[in-house]
Amino acid sequence: MENEKLQQLKDSILSGNVPQLVLSTISLAIDMRSSDIHIEPQKNHVNIRFRIDGVLSPIVEYPINMHPAVISRIKIMSELKIDEQRVPQDGRTHVTTKDNRSMDLRVSTLPTVNGEKVVMRIQDKSKKIPDLGELGIEETNLKYFEEALTAPNGIILTTGPTGSGKTTTLYSALSRLNKPEVNILTIEDPVEIQMEGLNQSQVHPDINYTFAGGLRCALRQDPNIIMVGEIRDKETADIAMEASLTGHLVLSTIHTNSAIETITRIINMGIPDYLIPATVELIIAQRLVRRLCDCKKPIEPSPEHKIRVDKVLANMPDTIKNAHKELFEKIQFFGPVGCEKCGGIGYLGRVGLYEMLKMHDNIRRLILEGKTSIDIEIEALKLGMLTLEYDGIFKALKGVTSVEEIYRVARKS
């Protein structure tokens, strides 16, 4: 089917059929499980690339003289200004596939020296939200997460770069909490996933409806649980802390590189040290790595990766080693091969790497004493916290992913 659609796309380029080119591109991207379509003008041609499982793959090229018509077609679909080519524009459109799958496309244009670049983000509205147990969260981490979700109040934060699965993790948690006896409100930008039973609101900064303003209004709506799309500033953080202290469970995201760094980030926003131990229940740092296809094979890591892995295993605290000792009985890693099922890539789908900082009493004490993030991390590791790198190596030892994938997204500890 993919080969047929790729051929259709190539035929539409050869015949100069622009509407067919655009539709074939979107259809092929959906079939290939792409999250984003990149249409990039170069000096003499235009590249079409798809982001599949987090990695960009070249698909086809078309002549530069077709590009203005392609851009106009996409702009008409997403209700953007056709005659405006000097400034970036954002829009959206909706498509329904032949097998009745409902897709939203978020469209972004950007002027470049060779013409306008377009990125279309595909959001599959019919996609099922995975349960927490299906996300790849290690058993101890899953226990921490489930305990935090049963707390009557507190803050659960997820952190990671764009496209690291934070929204999916939060919605997976909300699907557990979504019961008739609780009032759940979400303040988002934009509302990416619509869920029955939730009261979801989208912010509009252009009319001064911000995360902080939405959160303040949410507190007057008699909520039990509030999900805030992102804590970006002190005002939003202050209201989230206040909500937690007044008996609400708050879930949100924040942009940092690790769970420990999140504490520093909150303090740097101007939040007093004493409020963090009193309100924050759990901090989750996460990344997404590609999952090895069934065609994987046992391999020896590259010399560079072998040195890193050996060093990590040698320095790993005994508390963590003892909890996962079955993985060390036979050290074996796996690598991609490629088959028809995975389209010759060797990877199929993605799985999360998770670093969870539970607010143990020792961690609370260190924060109150104003200790550095390094001191907090040392104590957290003693208490059994898995770093992103540790979680990745465990998944590599289980044959879930490869060592190369871990170090593509996770920095060394």
Please outline what is shown here.
A 7-stranded mixed beta sheet has the order 9-8-10-11-7-12-15, sandwiched between helices. A 6-stranded antiparallel beta sheet has the order 3-2-1-6-5-4, with helices on one face. The chain has a two-stranded antiparallel sheet with strand order 13-14. It contains 15 helices and 15 strands.
Alpha carbon gap, first and last residue: 43 Å
The description of the largest β-sheet is: 7 strands, mixed
Q: Low-confidence parts lasting 5 or more residues at pLDDT below 50?
A: none
Percentage of residues in helical conformation: 25-40%
Shape: globular
Protein structure class: alpha/beta
Number of E-type strands: 15
Order of strands in the sheet with the most strands? Answer: 9-8-10-11-7-12-15
Oligomer: single chain
Number of helices: 15
Please tell me the overall pLDDT. Answer: 92
What topology emerges from the helices and strands here?
Blueprint: H1 2-15, H2 18-31, E1 34-41, E2 45-52, E3 55-63, H3 67-77, E4 89-96, E5 102-112, E6 115-124, H4 139-150, E7 154-159, H5 166-177, E8 184-188, E9 199-202, H6 211-218, E10 225-228, H7 234-245, E11 249-254, H8 259-268, H9 275-279, E12 280-292, E13 297-299, H10 303-315, H11 318-323, E14 333-335, E15 347-358, H12 361-368, H13 373-382, H14 388-397, H15 403-409
Parallel strand pairs: 7-11, 7-12, 8-9, 8-10, 10-11
Antiparallel strand pairs: 1-2, 1-6, 2-3, 4-5, 5-6, 12-15, 13-14
Helix pairs in contact: 1-2, 2-3, 6-7, 8-13, 12-13
